[in-house]
Specification:
This protein is mostly helical. A two-stranded antiparallel sheet has the order 1-2. Helix 1 crosses helix 2 and helix 1 packs antiparallel against helix 4. The longest helix is centred in the middle third of the chain and has 18 residues. The chain is elongated and about 60 Å long.
């Protein structure tokens, strides 16, 4: 067991410290995609977080659940679609198990594509 601690580097050998980082440089997040890949993305802006929270509220009203990850996924799917029917098709392909009501799908699309 003692040899395992030999592989741990001292604090001075660590990567960047808080003093080394420039403002806004550390705002990254690790996101696991549905296909199993891990992607490092920029932290969402306050506008994106507000939109995701609104989708979460719509999700609760329509289906009765609150799920921030599901709302985030729906946000990213919707942002990639230019038309409501394309969004509905993409939702059916990627999240078909949920069978979202058509009215809810249109509300989410209109929220993000005002």
């Amino acid at each position: 067991p003692k040899k395992a601690f030999d592989a741990i580097a001292p604090r001075g050998a660590m990567g960047a410290t808080k003093q080394d980082l420039k403002p806004g440089q550390a705002k990254k997040t690790l996101r696991m995609k549905t296909n199993g890949a891990a992607v490092v993305e920029d932290e969402p802006t306050s506008e994106v977080n507000t939109a995701i929270n609104k989708i979460d509220e719509l999700l609760e009203k329509a289906v009765g659940i609150r799920d921030n990850e599901l709302s985030t996924t729906m946000y990213h799917i919707c942002k990639d679609c230019k038309a409501a029917d394309a969004f509905a098709t993409a939702l059916d392909q990627q999240l078909g198990d949920f069978e979202f009501p058509d009215e809810f799908v249109l509300d989410v699309f209109e929220l993000l594509h005002k």
